[in-house]
Specification:
Elements lengths: L1 H13 L6 H9 L20 E4 L2 E3 L2 H11 L6 E5 L5 H10 L4 E6 L2 H14 L5 E5 L12 E6 L8 H5 L1 E11 L6 E8 L5 E9 L13
Parallel strand pairs: 3-4, 3-6, 4-5, 6-7
Antiparallel strand pairs: 1-2, 7-8, 8-9
Helix pairs in contact: 2-4
The structure holds S-adenosylmethionine (SAM).
Amino acid sequence: MIDERKELVKRLSEFGYIKSENVMHAMEKVPREEFLPEENKSYAYVDQPLPIGKGQTISAPHMVAMICERLQLEGDMKVLEIGTGFGYNAAVISEAMGKKGHVYSIERIEYLAKLAEENLKRTGYDENVTVIIGDGTLGYEKEAPYDRIYGTASAPYVPEPLKEQLKVGGRLLVPVGEQAYFQDLICIVKKSETEFKEKSLGGVAFVPMIGKHGWPE
Ligand code: SAM
């Protein structure tokens, strides 16, 4: 599967989704098949989202690459992810940052969170990725503030706790928009405790973010 992975990374680079050395290295290194249920492992290097159970999906590789690039990761960052799924994106972020960085990832569905923990342990990312079961629209106060926060599910508006838990100078990415349609990937840079610079990075399609500051269950 390593050849298929390398081939996919090459295409993602040619299409401009992968731009930097650390993201290329991470996408080449993390085995996506280890973050998929048995029946979908053979599709690991097709560039599309795939079902992981409970009505949820693993994000498409180009979307994972785009998020990693837009986060502008550095080696020693503290990152918060909303929506662990099976743990793939968190593993790629961790690999891109190296051993000094840490990813805290929140998943609301316990079944997925447990499997993500197993996947991360088997692939060696469990030391630098912590999975938390809970409502990610509340953020994760215990480890705040974060250098980077990103959501892999779409909310009706940017959840306020995520803005609060971002460091000054930090960057937040969240898909915002109607559930059944394309959403805007919103990028927020925190300029000061009270000032935020916001822009849209274009259309994306994610599953709904369900929670107190998201969509109702
Ligand atoms: N990050 C995943 C990956 O690596 O492929 C993608 C996960 S999937 C597109 C989005 C996930 O967000 C689902 O597993 C869903 O259960 C989760 N989710 C939705 N609302 C949430 C919330 N409020 N808090 C935490 N997780 C949530």
